[in-house]
From TrEMBL:
It comes from Marinobacterium iners DSM 11526. Its EC number is 1.13.11.2. Its cofactor is Fe(2+). Keywords: Aromatic hydrocarbons catabolism, Dioxygenase, Iron, Metal-binding, Oxidoreductase, Repeat. This is Metapyrocatechase. Belongs to the extradiol ring-cleavage dioxygenase family. Residues 7-122, 150-268 form the VOC domain. It catalyses: catechol + O2 = (2Z,4E)-2-hydroxy-6-oxohexa-2,4-dienoate + H(+). InterPro entries: Catechol_2-3_dOase, Fosfomycin_Res_Enzymes, Glyas_Bleomycin-R_OHBP_Dase, Glyas_Fos-R_dOase_dom, VOC_core, Xdiol_ring_cleave_dOase_1/2, XylE-like_N.
């Protein structure tokens, strides 16, 4: 049953050099810088996103993920889910309004995989960048780089994904869209709070709290191929692609920001309704599931995490 979680709202990631990271995310991915705060954090958004920001960069000694925030329908939904998270056994922390610039109060909680998540309902809405809500044009002029359309999802690694999957399904109301089974054991799970192929995914890993990638939507396969050109033109470190996934069927390419955080841009993919049964892949078909064309696993793709 849906619980009022609308969509991924923001991610805060750690980068080693803030200036290099800002250049990457604005000039290569094409995000728009929206704000900076006294802590030195930089706030970015993709052009179709209505809320003020979706990605926050924080300079640190070690790259990786600080937290993922999900936007809820309203403040009463946040209150209800806060209580249910406590009853589930999560450690819950209340974050005051404007601790992130332009964002309302947030409820932060831990998870069995060691990741930190947040729920919120209020954030300043600046509108789609360069496009009015009144008689809008098709796209804004002045976009740069890959012209990312939105922050779409993230893939996270950690232990006890069964516990985190249960948390997301039973407490937050996410649906299981796709899974990889090794016998009777679920080793990967793809979850959505919407009609998308996934809003978050988890893969079993002994190290807690690890980030595999953050993913941004592009308009088409042609745009994915153009992204590949830009990766070469800018000497950006490439991981794999362009190719197609078996899981989700999205067309994709993976690369790294200057700090080693993996990025994905993709187009297409499956859709989901709540009456759909989960799609299941067998673990022995994992090569085809991840890289549909090559059907062979890239060890670095599975093991390089931040």
């Amino acid at each position: 049953m849906k619980k009022g979680v609308l969509r991924p709202g923001h991610m805060q990631i750690r980068v080693l050099d803030l200036d290099e990271a800002v250049k990457h995310y604005t000039e290569v991915l094409g995000l728009i810088e929206m704000d900076r705060d006294p802590q030195g954090r930089v706030y970015l958004k993709a052009w179709t996103e209505v809320d003020k920001f979706s990605l926050v960069l924080r300079e640190a000694d070690v790259p990786g993920l600080d937290f993922v925030g999900y936007k809820c329908l309203n403040e009463s939904t946040v209150d209800t889910l806060r209580q249910q998270l406590i009853e589930y056994g999560c450690t819950v922390e209340d974050i005051h309004e404007n601790e992130l610039n332009g964002c309302g109060r947030r409820v932060r909680f831990d998870s069995p995989t060691g990741h930190v998540f947040e729920l919120f309902a209020s954030k300043e809405q600046t509108g789609r960048w360069g496009v009015s809500n009144h008689n809008p044009e098709a796209w804004p002029r002045g976009l740069r780089g890959m012209k990312a359309q939105r922050l779409d999802h993230c893939l996270l690694y950690g232990p006890n994904i069964a516990g985190t999957v249960d948390l997301f399904r039973e407490v937050l109301g996410f649906d299981l869209v796709e899974q990889v089974l090794d016998g009777d054991t679920r080793v990967a799970a793809f979850l959505t709070s919407s009609m998308k192929a996934h809003d978050v995914a988890f893969i079993e890993c002994p190290e807690p709290g690890k980030l595999h990638h953050i993913s941004f939507l592009l308009e088409s396969w042609d745009e994915v191929l153009r992204a590949a050109d830009l990766i070469s033109m800018t000497d950006t470190s490439i991981d794999i692609g362009p190719t197609r996934h078996g899981i989700t069927h999205g067309k994709t390419i993976y690369f790294f920001d200057p700090s080693g955080n993996r990025n994905e841009v993709f187009a297409g993919g499956n859709y989901f309704y709540s009456d759909h049964e989960p799609i299941t892949w067998d673990a022995e078909q994992l090569g085809k599931a991840i890289f549909y064309h090559d059907r062979v696993l890239n060890d670095a793709f599975l093991s390089v995490l931040t």
